[in-house]
Amino acid sequence: MELTEYIGSLKTPCYYYDIALLRKTLETVTGELKKYKDYQVHYAIKANANPVLLKLIASYGLGADCVSGNEIQRAIECGFPPEKIVYAGVGKSDWEIETALNNNIFCFNCESVPEIEIINEIAARMNKKARIALRINPNIDAHTHQYITTGTEESKFGIYIYDIEKVIALLKTCNSLELIGLHFHVGSQITEMEVFQKLSETANDIQQQLAKEEIELGHINFGGGLGIDYQSPYNEPIADFANYFATFADYFEQQAGQKVHFELGRAIIAHCGDLISKVLYVKESRTKKFAVLDAGMNDLLRPALYQAFHKIENISSDKPEEIYDVVGPICESSDFFGKNIRMNAVSRGDIVVVHTAGAYGETMSSRYNLRELPLSYFSE
Ligand SMILES: *Cc1c(COP(=O)(O)O)cnc(C)c1O
């Protein structure tokens, strides 16, 4: 069966994942990693936690970056070894901390003084030692949408750079903690490599400062954030991993024996997923044509949440192009996938593909309006 025909036969709305592309992406990532000593990627589970995809990603030897207790459990169920699991988040509940300790994960990425105190307390009670890294907020602007900027002083994330000394002093009193590294994550969909250059230079400074106090850092974790091309999904289906890792190799002063970690989500999984929907109605006002889809913001929230752009295509028609607002059925004005979108003239029943929806698509889906969760299908 031809791909278009196959996609047309799926129950919509649904996600369709191109497994061959995911494999190729993972081969590219692991190939690039091999060029450097002790570079390692932890896949950010929150980008897409579908078990089929997670099992495949784990099979390439990647670790997992988790932001909740359930993500830790899902990662382990899908084959990520606990010694390759890291756990970040500004609000870790006690049971989540216990889950992480019970599973002996590699590292907690700690985001505040009170969190450090609680992890120390819980670890002491459980007779365990928690390995921690300090998530530093380096006050670097990621030049991306404000809702996915995380590394500036205005944001809730991380330990503010001017508090490091205070935290180091605190750690001397925490007998159930072991400081093993530093962590950063300054934002997502970052396309300017200068941001990662700046981040490397900031890490160099902090590392030097801590070396004076004889604090050795076994690893530095630079988080994720590598941006991708949402405009032309067919041109650049694999992110520029080569340039990304090379930027850190050029600017970060890796110490002897030190490991360098990354937490990529979007760049690994976004391109391999599309949201597939059917046109329910074409509705016209005096000024606009609306293509009303059977998919809504509950299936893919990114346009409503971040004003995100997704390429939209009508794969059922080769009629001349017209201009549409592509909207969903949900009772919210922000329930649209794109405005003034040019696509082949649409009729009821046509299949409309919202491209590059593999990251932060399915994981953010909800049952708002009591709709069903979107299904998922795989190319193999
Ligand atoms: C979301 C997140 C990531 C992944 O970001 P991408 O932009 O998808 O690469 C990595 N680390 C942390 C701590 C995160 O919160």
Number of domains: 2
* Ions and ligands: pyridoxal-5'-phosphate
Number of strands: 17
Describe the global form.
elongated
Average the pLDDT over all residues and give the rounded result: 96
CATH superfamily of the largest domain: Alanine racemase
- Summarize the biggest pleated sheet: 8 strands, mixed
State the CATH architecture of the largest domain: Alpha-Beta Barrel
User: How much β-strand is present in the residues?
Assistant: 15-25%
Number of distinct helices: 11
CATH class of the largest domain: Alpha Beta
Please identify the structural class as seen in this structure: alpha/beta
Q: Terminal Cα separation, in Å?
A: 13 Å
Return Rg in Å.
22 Å
Low-confidence region ranges: none
Overall helicity: 25-40%
Query: What is the succession of H and E elements?
Result: HEHEHEHEHEHEEHEHEHEHEEHEEEEE
CATH topology of the largest domain: TIM Barrel
Topology (SSEs and partners):
Elements lengths: L2 H6 L5 E4 L1 H15 L5 E6 L6 H9 L3 E4 L2 H9 L7 E3 L6 H9 L4 E4 L2 H13 L4 E8 L21 E2 L3 H8 L5 E7 L9 H19 L7 E3 L19 H11 L7 E4 L3 H4 L3 E12 L4 E5 L8 H5 L5 E3 L6 E7 L8 E9 L6 E4 L20 E4 L2
Parallel strand pairs: 1-17, 2-3, 2-10, 3-4, 4-5, 5-6, 6-7, 6-8, 8-9, 9-10, 12-14
Antiparallel strand pairs: 1-11, 11-12, 11-16, 13-16, 14-15
Bound molecules: pyridoxal-5'-phosphate.
